[in-house]
Design goal:
The protein is α+β, with helices and mostly antiparallel strands. The protein has helices at residues 7-10, 50-55, 61-72, 92-108, and strands spanning 22-23, 37-42, 76-81, 122-123, 146-151, 154-159, 166-169, 177-183, 192-195, 198-202, 214-220. Helix 3 crosses helix 4. The radius of gyration is 18 Å and the shape is globular.
Length: 223
């Protein structure tokens, strides 16, 4: 089902929505949706456009990764189009973007693949409105924007940008006692404190990443 305005979808009873997958084209959801949904976007146009290469105007890897984290945290999936030339190949700019996305997911994909939403999708200063075709109006995410996923008894917190030393997670001010925090892919424990204002995690520069990091959080009553 396409995310374009459709009275049939709006009038569909909630108990039947599991039979279809809503597609929010080039758009967002403000929060967690009960049924799986999808958003689709493209790093350029829906067809290959040489001017995108010449002007270096493709959507960058950071924007794609941050969108992925946001969508997955809200029970969605991201369909990403990479326009191909007439011979089926991609240009050097597209290849660089794809490789950067692949590098991030190889390192932090544990927080994405086979994960489930947490009790809240995230926190941070960037406001998101539900609806299709909202990309151009959307402000870039910031490192203070955090998205959550879970897997078993583990909570993952993904920063949507490079953290500057300390990651503050207000959502963990209540409802659980954190026992251990580490960066996904690195089993070394990180220093942290938890108080009435939230969880405060020290992320050393060597463990950071320009697009953001995924923290693996465990404890009592977290998930």
């Amino acid at each position: 089902y396409s995310g374009r305005p459709n009275p049939a979808w709006d009038s569909l009873p909630e108990n039947r929505r599991a039979a279809v997958v809503e597609d929010v084209e080039r758009g967002f959801r403000a929060d967690i949706v009960p049924h799986p949904w999808q958003t689709d976007t493209c790093i350029g146009d829906w067809h290959y456009n040489r001017e995108r290469f010449n002007q270096k105007s493709y959507m960058g890897a950071a924007a794609v990764i941050h969108r992925l984290c946001d969508v997955v945290a809200k029970n969605g999936c991201l369909l990403l189009s990479i326009p191909v030339r007439g011979d089926g190949s991609i240009d050097s700019e597209e290849r660089k973007i794809v490789e950067q996305i692949g590098s991030w997911t190889q390192r932090f994909g544990e927080a994405i693949y086979a994960s489930r939403p947490w009790k809240v999708s995230g926190e941070g200063p960037t406001r998101i409105a539900s609806g299709q075709f909202g990309e151009e109006k959307m402000k870039p995410f910031e490192a203070a924007d955090i998205r959550f996923t879970t897997k078993g008894s583990v909570l993952y917190a993904m920063t949507l940008g490079r953290p500057s030393g300390t990651v503050n997670i207000a959502s963990l001010a209540k409802g659980g006692s954190v026992k251990r925090v580490e960066v996904v892919g690195n089993s070394a424990p990180l220093g942290f404190s938890q108080d009435a204002s939230g969880l405060h995690v020290t992320v050393p520069p060597a463990a950071s990443h320009e697009f953001g990091v995924a923290l693996k959080i465990s404890g009592d009553g977290i998930t």
